[in-house]
Amino acid sequence: MPATRLLVRYLAWIVRIALFLLVLAFALENSQVVTVQYFVATPWQAPLVVVILLCFAVGAALGVLAVIPSFIRMRRDLALLRRQLKLLQPDQARGEPPQ
After folding, report:
1. Which residues contact residue 27 at a Cβ distance below 8 angstroms, ignoring those fewer than 6 apart?
2. Helix, strand, or coil here: 27?
3. Which of 10, 30, 83, 95 would you call most buried, defined as having the most Cβ atoms within 10 angstroms of its Cβ?
4. Binned average pLDDT, 10 residues per bin, the chain of 99 residues
5. How far apart are CA 36 and CA 42, in angstroms?
6. Assessment of whether the complete model's pTM goes beyond 0.85
7. Taking the mean position of all CA atoms in its chain, how far away is CA 27?
């Protein structure tokens, strides 16, 4: 393994550990209990870090769900273009221009 790849691997682990320590410090500093009340539902109490993590997870899930339709459409278009390319390749092998 080249030295640069090894250096990048070590650097990636250092960044991961630093990020973990930052998140851990954030969680320890925000452990107080907060009350969340959504419309007419009964109040819900949880540590602040749990509420923030839950909001982040719900937002990430909604973001992924919003992208899925365009992702499916692009995969369908890609499959169509690949089929068209397979149909054109035998013509190009004979020297005929595509139609």
Report:
1. 49
2. helix
3. 30
4. 87 95 90 87 88 93 96 96 87 60
5. 9
6. no
7. 22
